[in-house]
């Protein structure tokens, strides 16, 4: 590690990247400073990045050991991660004594506040740059905690997560610098001398920010809150999901190294690993020192946080029920292949994976002629089967089932209606203990009240429902109800009818859901791009926040004004 | 009223004002489009403004009548305002049937959303311009509900409130237009064709916004939330304090007129007057249609709203305890006259009025020599007495006591310690029934635990405590504790010592309070200027929001993205 970097050096190093990120969030065009292809990393590629093999070796070297972090207030060790691919990681992490750790984190904050928005952004960008260089190591850590296949773990857990972190830094910087550092105020008083004041404005942090990580996307869902809070002057306590500690522990380690190198207290970022069944998040979230909480996970605990962590700003991403309205298409083949991919990617274990496919019971118009409801469902089942017919390809797309509950849901779903596509188990030759499952598609009748319980609940995992509806208008009614009552991270629609398109758009504008229309190529409804796409809307029950907009950062700091006679 | 104004006409009329407001919130220099002197209004002055006499006549014409508003869902009439100056207003307002009114308000929103940020800003500016022209009428309405003296009712209730409303419109416009209306996104794919999407971004409202008004500053504290919500596409239901309905009822009437003239549904803004003891705010605040709440008032109800109106974004300004640290000065006379004015203005019935004056028990250094604690307190008492010695001037500064509880507090305060300045009753020859009281100053010893209960509670009204402390450092310790535990809207300090100045600044930065240093001229700690000063910090218990920053507007709308293949 480079020691003794001045913040001026870091600012010079990263200012152009920050400026480009600021441009990107303003224009929403495609941009990223972090290459997404694994081959871009290594001695010939991204500066300072080890080879893929060395990255993997770095990951392997962490296994079966204590993960040392020199943070204050360690009262023991906690661990127990088991890869969804089978192996135990065997890593132990420091367990915090909050009564020691939190005061140390608070004590680190005044110097960080004084550094100002630009220096803080530069330090955050250095953290991201060092993480980026180690993307291969992070990819293995994400793969063996989330169960994502390697390529997805690399991209979503690496460069794309880093993009979301950088995006948050850019929003934080923009928001903190909207008010000038100082102003001279002069109010005319007619013939008398004007009233004159010198005013200084300082962005100040709220306190300690608590990041409660999730199992499936520890970095992608974690980085926005972590970097938004750090860039706005707060200290950040990182409480990973107990089954996905390593990617965030590595993040904390890198952050602490960079902070120390730049002359700040490393205690601005610390880890809170927990013992089995300890439920440490609940205790931490309501402590008075905690003034911001970022959370991704179940609706039950998200609602609990919103109700109980009242001393804090609480940003949550919870469960939702994602819908695709299938009305008509001029590219039936593209529709099928695009949807098949969306349903298969990471075995549907994304908060953005479509669940309810609403299809008129009279069928749909396509460029390949009219297709009945049964034909559409059968063709989709065939498309999914075809996509996953080769086991190697299936493994590369599906990854592993993250936990037993998801597997149980696959079994239970098959009891809910007629199974249009049965889930099959795939063997992973590299990891024979991994549970790898293809999606199940179940037919349901939207007119039957007893189907409602199924399609109006989130069934997280590779389960989707082909719901027969009376018409496109009926689909839009059900879409509205689903978003309003259950929330949605994504909505998709296929239609060639301007009228249906208008109805779906209007529903999404009124119910506040992000809409992807007629995706038939290489962009999928479950993927969003930092700097351009919003992840979630913050306006329906699936999430109270967006990755990333100014509301996501603006309340993480306050502005203190000091005024005095000029 | 001008009928049938197009939004294009309104935009052209007001765009330059909006641009200037956007510049002002960026530079924080002095600016206002609304003249603050009463004489600026009339046929020779602000276009369209009636003469002061006609303004007063317009107010008088409202008295003793029903205040008709053609809003849907009126199930009766409610009223009963009695001027703090004595007279009953005798006005009855429509009482809402929320089950009829709220759906009508919701139905008005899609067209308002479709109009877009610029048209909404223009309509808001037209509302403010028409209110501005009627500032004399509003001044009498504010005077006879809040008890403010005429000049203050005119300025704070008129142009300054309009400034705070315009400031909120500017913030709302800036925030909604940070994301472009559309973007073309093209992601390179190596040798393959790039992925290309057309993306559209639309700011969408949250729902119906509920404004819960206060008794003392119905317009000044009400306009920021009202206009921030309206400008971001929401409908706004205005629930005034039952003793200060008229200023907001007039506001609602003007808003409805402008909305109708501009081709929108007037139901985007409606009034919810309540019957005596009805507590309608509690029922409205938790309705699912209400997605935003703005509130100014007691800590108890503010806390209740934050805990219970969980379906809404809740912005509160509650009680606080404001402190002035008096360490030393190079303008003793200026210090005394400035503080005397701050304590006297509107009989201390401002959320920003200083309460605790922390003075070292060994006295302070001044340009007029060393002054003992007793001398400082006695000189301040003399300065207040001198300022208010003339009854006409006293009436013009003090206004009337807004309600019986304030009067009771004056009496009770005198029992808490040695009275350095007794409150006296002043007769108002124009309004013999008005209760007009000068400030009471009570000496307390900060080292005596039994004084704590007094100076660590908000004693709203013309009561201040001269608290003897051990030293400047002791004063800063008490300041920190007060802000952290009780909150503060304002902090003042007088010092010639760079070290004490640094300590006070550091305390305000860490405890998140707005600081005015060494005010000795015509700017007072209890006054803030829109576009430049922040009112409250949002970071201590006195308020969870600031008038006005981007956090105050950013979460009032969401951005919905629709993306489709390019």
How does this model look, in words?
Two copies of one chain form a homodimer. By secondary structure, the first copy, chain A, is of the alpha/beta class. Chain A folds into two domains: 301 residues, 3-Layer(aba) Sandwich (Aldehyde Dehydrogenase, Chain A, domain 1); 195 residues, Aldehyde Dehydrogenase, Chain A, domain 2 (3-Layer(aba) Sandwich), CATH 3.40.309.10. The first copy, chain A, contains 19 helices and 19 strands. Chain A has a seven-stranded mixed β-sheet, sandwiched between helices. A five-stranded parallel β-sheet of chain A has the order 7-6-5-8-9, sandwiched between helices. The first copy, chain A, has a three-stranded antiparallel β-sheet with strand order 3-4-19, covered by helices on one side. In chain A, strand 6, helix 9 and strand 7 form a beta-alpha-beta unit. The radius of gyration of chain A is 25 Å and the shape is globular. The mean pLDDT of chain A is 97. At the A-B interface, strand 3, strand 4, helix 18, strand 18 and helix 19 of A face strand 3, strand 4, helix 17, strand 18 and helix 18 of B. Strand 19 of chain A pairs parallel with strand 18 of chain B, so a sheet runs across the interface.
